[in-house]
Amino acid sequence: MSEKRAAIARVDPVWSHICDEARAAVRDEPLMGGLIHSGILHHPTLERALSYRFSLKLASGEMSEQILREIADEAYAADPDLGQSARADIVAVYDRDPACHRFMQPLLYFKGYQAVQAYRIGHWLWGQGRRDLAYFVQMRVSEAFGVDIHPGAVIGKGIMIDHAHSIVIGETAVVGDNVSMLHSVTLGGTGKEDGDRHPKIGDGVLIGAGAKVLGNIHVGDRSRIAAGSVVLHDVPCCKTVAGVPAKVIGDAGCDQPALLMDQLIDRES
User: Fold this and answer.
1) Cis amide bond preceding 245, omega within 30
2) Banded model confidence at residue 1, pLDDT cuts 50, 70, 90
3) The domain spanning residue 264 has which CATH number?
4) What is the CA 178 to chain-centroid distance, rounded?
5) How far apart are CA 224 and CA 181, in angstroms?
6) Is this prediction's pTM over 0.85?
7) 71: domain range?
8) What is the pLDDT of residue 3?
């Protein structure tokens, strides 16, 4: 390893690891060289690579890649937490998704990861009062990835959304750190009410495929929501809920359900 690469590895081990994987991937499959160089190796930092991906995926006839790239670069320069959350999300996907074997995969191939990073830029715009740009990002993320996250929602770090198809997260939803959810999850309201109307999801929660969590309710830390459940009431910490409507059927079964991704509930039924 060169002295420069060694220095980068000490300062930013996640990005250094991604670059090492990218160079190996090009050696193994030269036909991917153009994509991997433009997506990873051409960029000095993860933030710059994310800006490129954001602009490439969300550009349209209504908004050019150049403008979107400038927006993303501005966001990452203004808020270092965006880059740190992106790194935590990569590690989360690598740790929890058995289909993820390299750090570079979420950055290049996984729409759940890319959608969450694009949402983060939209949320930054929302916080800056740039509401129309934030809505544009929401619209394009929904069109490009099939993931609809309102830019006003608050989402923590270490997030893993597996498959990510048909995810819906409403404006006043709050999602804690180290949360895992599968496809077709909805964090929504219950009708036409205004104001604070969406769920608050605690840290370390596992939400199974197709689950619907509706209304201004609280889901406690390190709980589990079984696939296909409809949750309409508060969920205590460290419990498993299942059914339509969902009811507590037992303990969460482990200290960190979102990290272990254990969705079996027959031993508690």
Assistant:
1) yes
2) low
3) 2.160.10.10
4) 10
5) 10
6) yes
7) 12-146
8) 56
Do the Cβ atoms of 107 and 18 come closer than 8 Å?
Answer: yes
Q: What would the mean pLDDT of 46-71 be, rounded to a whole number?
A: 98
Spatial contact of 113 and 141, defined as CB atoms under 8 Å apart: no
Contacts of 156 (CB under 8 A, 6+ apart): 85, 175, 176, 177, 178, 179, 203
The mean pLDDT of the chain is 94
Higher per-residue confidence, 265 vs 253: 253
Q: Is residue 4 situated within a structural domain?
A: no
Torsion of CA 25, 27, 31, 33, to 10 degrees: 70
| Residue 41 DSSP code | I
What's the pLDDT band for 232 if we cut at 50, 70, 90?
Answer: very high
Q: Phi and psi at residue 212, in whole multiples of 5°?
A: -120, 120
Q: Are residues 73 and 158 in the same domain?
A: no
Q: What is the pLDDT of residue 120?
A: 98
**Count of the separate structural domains present in the chain:** 2
- What CA–CA distance (Å, rounded) separates 84 from 76? 10
Which pLDDT value is given to residue 269? 43
- What type of residue is 50? L
Vertex 203: Cα angle to 84 and 224 (nearest 5): 130
Q: Are 1 and 12 in contact (CB under 8 A)?
A: no
123 and 85, same structural domain? yes
Q: In whole angstroms, give the CA distance from residue 228 to residue 235.
A: 16
Mean pLDDT calculated for residue range 130-135: 98
Do 50 and 115 lie in one domain? The reply is yes
